[in-house]
Design goal:
heterodimer; A: mainly alpha; Glutathione S-transferase Yfyf (Class Pi), Chain A, domain 2; 7-stranded mixed β-barrel; flat; B: alpha/beta; Rossmann fold; 6-stranded mixed sheet; 7 helices; 42% helix; ANKRD27 (chain A); guanyl-nucleotide exchange factor activity (chain A); UPF0507/Ank_repeat_27 (chain A); SNARE binding (chain A); Ankyrin_rpt (chain A)
Chain lengths: 1112, 211
């Protein structure tokens, strides 16, 4: 019977209603029940059941009518359309409860519960599902897994790991946690009771993990996709003025946007991919709602949806859309979403993609290019609007001549007006000339005319970055400080649009860099907001020093740094920090830039800056640049300190400011700025063309118009290309230091002085090029080609070859040698390049130098030959070989230079010592020592050596000082008197060490000489003062490095020959010393073994102490 | 009747075509059907679902309507990726719209290969008098690219249902022939499986109970 009913229903294509599962029990079904659920259409919306009761259907609601006991409403949930083989079609609808009450005996609660379908969506749900019934063990297991994953999310790994890796590791974490959950017995039991738990298990695990790790994970994603986000942000910010109508959104749907915007706030605060996706769904459904009052309306399609979403994204203040999107798609491991969600996500993706594609910019520019149509369609060519539009159009195109034409009509009109019969004459003649009756001149535009935005011509020029027009307008009296209705100056406008050239011109024309618009935004804010790094640079460098307030806040209390940090503009953040932006500024919401950051690298920058500012709290000025620049610490970067040191002479300071600006541009490798400042914009320009007659009145100080340009260029060349800063560094020095080949070649083309020296240290650019840690062969080549002198000496008598030997660049050394560099040139200390190379144990350079026939027998002022400065056995071998050859060839001539008194070689010494022993100290010193030692008793010598011995054991210092920073500092700094006076105090040794080591650190070589020369006296002192001397010797031994090493030896040697009893001990100590020498560990190891023993401030030395001590 | 294919097959169908060819009305006509064609609960047509049961095989269709405007052309791949069926609609009165269809066919074949079932639909046959695209030529073209050609009129509700049912059948067939073990799409629509199972129970029970 039921079967026949069913067949009849199919046959007649009747509609069948099926109550939702769990709302009835099947065994209670009667035929009547079945018949009540088969609906037969009688009329539109009117149906009768097979049991002949009446229902009506409207908007998916069945209203029970005649024949039913209760006239209730039943919701239709969803339908399934059946197609049979026999071409029949019928619909089955799921309804939320049975239509008739006859069959509805409610289920027990338990049955209902297990039958009720549910979906886990929130974190609370997941925790409920996973850990109900105090399932602590599972929670513990999962939490432990999560916490072990945390380190993988730290920022430090960000460079080495990609997003893909992170997705994979997160996925494996998810898998592990899921496995743990499925194995859990409690959960298993519950799953068997309620199948929906099993269905939702994946979602719950995923939600729980993502929620736990959200902060770190999301930061990681933000960092990984930072560049994409920054790009998107820049586009978004630059589109911020876009309107719904620009996007072609049907007006009826516009009312949906505010609703969706509210949902957007929710979106940001969601922490799991699922919650975020639900939020996206809400946003899009809000957009898709049909407006209440709309009647005959076209259905909403993707063509309407995308623009609305685009609008929403552009207008939103979410700085990490890409990261959000990645999070939703890549970290949703349970893949629980339906097609519906993938549709929402795709729509979002499409909108983001559309924004990124730049189509919108075309749209906007197309919009503005429509404007010129207006004048053509306007009837009267003399109407004010059309003139205005013509002018603005010409400005937009940057056509200076046309702009001039339009503006000059003003003058003509003026002239004609004057020639009128009388001011109000309307005779034919006057009419013709004047146009409009009541105010003839109104028809014309001036540079002061404004359009409907309050823009003047200057604004318009700034808007389109027409630098030439700006200059022309300025020359016509246009105001750079004019403001529009929003109080924006032209500078605001061009900063917003990112026209660097316009920004520079405007600033040069005297635009106020700190002008605020109605929102309190300064030009810097706008340039930052829209991500125009070049404009930020222009603002910073082009403005006169100390005029730009980098820390000023807008209405919301945001500084430029806040904005840069929020929108993930890494380079701008860096730039701002470098120029004194305060990293701890707070906005109206009391947020520091750090709190707004979503990008790891920026967070790092800010953290560093905060550290720096704390360190330098007393300095007043935060010079982060030192931290960033890779300047070798040979001399101090001039940058900011120099500003304050500047002499006050007004005219001179003006010039030097320009010079400073110029030098900064060079140091920032900003070629355009540099060219601009030097007036090199046109390559054909030759300074010799400019004659004195060209001097004439300029339109404005930096006008570049045709008339002024030549004069400008001449003036520009007033900046001496060879001008230097306080330390005498010229542009070339700086460019070389930055290894910027482009700028160097540019500068060299301008015939500047290649061999100019810096003030104090007297470096030529070639010196600098040769001491770069990562030397540029190209740079050196270029310099030499342009006439750099290869044998130029600095204040310490060092030539470039000394430096290249020291830094160990084979290519450069060779280049210098090929360019006839003097190979045996001595510096102030008498060291030849070979000495230098030996000091740093650079075998390759030693080879090279010897190959070019460097003289290995030369002694420095300390009487040491190169071989004595090294402990590297290979080098010793090489030099010994070279020495032999040298002697063979030149023995007769140079024998006088060789030490005649050669101490017998000790057998127990290593071969290295043997070699160096042969060339130890010169005679006089030796004799002095002898004398000193012989004159005193053995007892004290014993004491001395025991202290040397013990010293060796406890804190033998490194024998070779590789102090790169040393040459700069002055020898004068050494407090010799201090040393000598402290010798006599009990703790002199310690203190002395400190002094000397300080000195050594600062003065390197020079001190070596000093100590060495005072060697005799120290020897004497040693003897007389006993214990404290240990410190002395020790410090001597240490600081002089190579030199001292041999000094120590020679002392030992002397001692050896004098006191027999001491002999053994001395030898021992020497030996141990030498052992250390030969096995000298690589420098980097020192740092690892930091172990503070002395008060010595230099960590490098300390670490050696520790290392040595530990070796003993 | 239910047989082995008790599982719901989820298919994604993407509608492509120039604006104004009637993609939207086509899908609305089919999905919203005659029950409530006057009362749209939501007036959106960009994403609609439809459940079918073809000879016992349950099919869940997700129909994605794409943006037709030229400026959104580049967004195509985001929409049509992973789809098993594509309906390429042209207006029989508009030659250009047919050219556009040809372009889409090329793109789809390039990006999705033969995995996607193509339907070329000449819509607006109620305007037969203004026809600009020759039916024979269109049929021939469709054949040449391995697509099926249909004529429809959303306005008169002609050929709409046939189109979707036929496409569903083709997709089912493709799915069965390509991989017995089930493609990844079948696993995909988890959420809908959960819901569908609930209704499945009473539906069969009812029938069973009555038989």
């Amino acid at each position: 019977m039921c079967s026949s009913l069913f067949h009849a229903a199919v046959e007649n294509e009747w509609m069948i209603c099926v109550p939702k599962v769990g709302t009835f029990e099947d065994h209670t079904l009667t035929e009547l029940d079945c018949m009540s659920h088969v609906l037969i259409e009688v009329d539109t919306d009117q149906y009768r059941t097979a049991s002949d009761k009446h229902v009506s259907i409207k908007e998916k609601v069945i209203t029970l009518g005649e024949g039913f006991e209760n006239a209730t409403q039943v919701q239709m949930l969803f339908s399934e359309t059946f197609y049979t083989d026999s071409q029949k079609k019928y619909q089955v609808w799921c309804v939320d409860k049975p239509l008739s009450f006859e069959c509805s005996t409610p289920l027990s609660l338990q049955q209902l519960q297990s039958a009720t379908e549910f979906r886990v969506l929130t974190v609370e749900d997941s925790i409920d599902l996973l850990f109900t019934g105090q399932n602590c063990s599972l929670k513990k297991t999962i939490d432990k897994m999560i916490s072990t994953h945390k380190p993988a999310l730290s920022f430090s790994d960000k460079r080495t790991q990609s997003l893909r890796d992170q997705i994979d590791t997160m996925h494996s974490l998810f898998t592990k946690c899921l496995q743990a959950s499925s194995k859990d017995s409690q959960l298993k039991r519950r799953m068997s009771l309620n199948k929906h738990i099993a269905d939702n298990l994946r979602v719950s695990v995923e939600t729980y993990i993502n929620d736990k790790l959200f902060a770190d994970l999301f930061k990681y994603i933000c960092t990984a996709v930072a560049s994409e986000d920054a790009q998107l942000n820049k586009i978004n910010r630059n589109l911020s003025q876009i309107q719904l109508k620009d996007l072609g959104i049907v007006s009826e749907f516009r009312s949906n946007v505010p609703k969706a915007r509210r949902e957007l706030l929710e979106f940001v605060s969601q922490r799991t991919p699922i919650a975020k996706m639900i939020s996206v769904k809400k946003i899009i459904t809000a957009l898709m709602q049909s407006p209440r009052n709309a009647q005959e309306l076209e259905p909403l399609t993707a063509d309407d949806l995308i623009p609305m979403l685009v609008f929403l994204i552009v207008q939103s203040s979410i700085p990490n859309w890409s990261a959000n999107f990645e999070y939703m798609t890549q970290f949703h491991f349970s893949k629980s979403y339906t097609d519906e969600y993938s549709f929402y996500l795709s729509t979002l993706e499409a909108a983001i993609f559309y924004i990124k594609s730049g189509e919108l910019n075309k749209l906007l520019s197309a919009d503005s290019s429509k404007k010129p149509i207006i004048p053509s369609r306007a009837g009267s060519p003399y109407s004010k609007t059309s003139q205005m539009d013509i002018l603005f159009e010409h400005i937009r195109c940057g056509d200076v001549d046309q702009v001039r034409n339009v503006l000059e009509q003003v003058d003509e009109a003026e002239a004609e007006r004057v020639s009128k019969c009388h001011p109000l004459c309307s005779c034919d003649l006057c009419e013709k000339g004047g146009g409009d009756e009541d105010s003839p001149h109104r028809a014309h535009v001036t540079v002061f005319s404004r359009d409907d935005r309050g823009y003047t011509a200057m604004h318009q020029a700034a808007l389109y970055g027409q630098a030439e027009v700006i200059e022309f307008l300025k020359s016509c009296g246009g105001l750079v400080s004019a403001t529009d209705y929003h109080s924006s100056t032209p500078l605001h406008v061009s900063c917003q649009k990112g026209h660097q050239s316009a920004v520079m011109i405007l600033i040069d024309c005297g635009a106020d860099v700190n002008a605020a618009d109605n929102d309190g935004n300064r030009p810097l804010h706008l340039a930052t907001l829209n991500g125009h790094e070049d404009c930020v640079k222009a603002l910073i460098y082009q403005s006169l020093p100390n005029t730009l307030d980098i820390n000023v806040a807008n209405e919301r209390g945001d500084t430029a740094l806040h904005i840069a940090a929020k929108w993930s503009y890494e380079t701008i953040t860096d730039l701002l920090l470098e120029h004194g932006a305060w990293p701890e500024a707070r906005n109206r919401r009391n947020a520091t830039p750090m709190m707004l950051v979503s990008h790891g690298a920026i967070a790092q920058l800010l953290t560093n800056a905060i550290k720096m500012s704390q360190q330098r709290a007393n300095d007043g000025f935060i010079d982060v640049s030192q931290m960033h620049s890779a300047t070798p610490p040979v001399y101090e970067p001039p940058e900011t300190q120099s500003l304050s040191l500047k002499p006050a002479a007004a005219s001179q300071s003006k010039v030097s400011k320009k010079v400073q600006k110029f030098l900064r541009a060079v140091s920032d490798s900003d070629v355009n700025m540099m060219k601009h400042l030097m007036g090199w914009s046109e390559p054909e320009y030759d300074s010799s063309d400019v004659t004195d007659d060209d001097e004439k009145e300029l339109c404005h100080p930096l006008c570049q118009c045709k008339r002024c340009a030549p004069t400008q260029k001449k003036q520009a060349s007033i900046i001496d290309i060879n001008a230097g800063d306080e330390q005498g560094r010229t542009a070339l020095h700086i460019a070389v230091e930055r290894s910027n080949v482009e700028i160097i070649s540019l500068l060299l083309e301008k015939h500047l002085e290649v061999n100019c020296k810096t003030n104090l240290v007297q470096f030529t650019p070639l010196h600098i090029a040769c001491q770069q840690l990562t030397p540029h062969k190209e740079t050196v080549e270029m310099l030499i080609k342009h006439g750099a002198k290869v044998n130029c000496k600095d204040c310490n008598g060092r030539t470039p070859l000394h430096f290249s030997s020291q830094t160990g660049s084979v290519a450069i050394t060779q280049l210098l040698l090929e360019s006839d560099a003097n190979i045996d040139v001595m510096n102030i200390r008498g060291n030849t390049p070979l000495h230098e190379a030996c000091k740093v144990n650079n075998t390759e350079i030693v080879h090279l130098l010897l190959h070019y026939r460097a003289n290995p027998t030369l002694t420095n002022k300390n009487g040491l030959t190169a071989i004595q400065l090294t402990s590297n056995s290979k080098i010793i071998q090489v030099i010994t070989y070279a020495l032999d050859r040298w002697r063979e060839q030149q023995a007769p001539a140079k024998s006088c230079q060789l030490p005649t008194h050669i101490t017998p070689v000790k057998e127990q010494h290593t071969s290295a010592v043997a070699k160096s022993d042969a060339n130890t100290c010169n005679n006089t010193q030796r004799q002095h020592l002898f004398a000193a030692l012989e004159a005193n008793d053995q007892q004290k010598l014993k004491l001395l050596f025991s202290s040397i011995g013990s010293f060796n054991r406890s804190s033998l210092r490194r024998t070779i000082t590789r102090d790169r920073s040393s040459p700069l500092l002055n020898i004068d700094k050494i407090d010799k008197s201090k040393i000598s006076s402290s010798k006599h105090t009990a703790d002199a040794g310690e203190y002395m060490w400190k002094c000397v080591s300080d000195d050594i650190h600062s003065s390197g070589q020079s001190i070596a000489g000093d100590i060495h020369s005072s060697g005799q006296s120290i020897a004497g002192d040693i003897y007389s003062t006993g214990q404290s001397i240990a410190g002395d010797i020790h410090s001597t031994g240490q600081c002089v490095g190579g030199d001292i090493h041999s000094t120590g030896q020679c002392v030992v040697g002397d001692i050896h020959s004098t006191g027999q009893s001491i002999d053994e001990m001395a030898t021992n100590s020497t030996q141990s010393l030498l052992v250390e020498d030969t096995n000298e560990p690589p420098e980097c190891d020192f740092h690892l073994n930091l172990h503070n023993q002395t008060e010595c401030e230099n960590s490098e030395t300390e670490s050696v102490d520790g290392l040595m001590a530990s070796q003993y | 009747m239910a047989g082995a294919q008790n599982r719901t097959s989820s298919f994604k169908i993407v509608l492509l075509g120039e604006g104004c060819v009637g993609k939207t009305s086509l899908v609305l006509r089919y999905v919203e059907d005659k029950f409530n064609d006057k009362h749209y609960s939501t007036l959106q047509a960009s994403f609609l679902t439809k459940k079918l049961n073809i000879n016992g095989s349950r099919v869940s269709l997700a129909i994605w309507d794409t943006a037709g405007q030229e400026r959104f052309h580049a967004l195509g791949p985001i929409y049509y990726r992973d789809s098993q069926g594509a309906i390429l609609v042209y207006d029989i009165t508009d030659e250009d719209s047919f050219e556009k269809v040809k372009m889409w066919v090329k793109e789809l074949r390039k990006m999705l290969g033969n995995a996607v079932q193509l339907c070329i639909v000449g819509n607006k046959i109620d305007k037969e008098k203004e026809r600009h695209v020759a039916a024979a030529a269109a049929e021939e073209y469709a054949k040449s690219v391995g697509a099926k050609h249909y004529h429809s009129s959303a306005k008169l509700n002609k050929g709409v249902e046939e189109l979707f049912v036929d496409l569903s059948k083709r997709m089912l067939q493709k799915k069965l022939s390509s991989d017995e073990s089930g493609s990844d799409r079948a696993v995909g629509g988890r959420g809908s499986v959960v819901i569908a199972d609930d209704s499945a129970a009473p539906a069969t029970q009812k029938k069973g109970g009555c038989c």
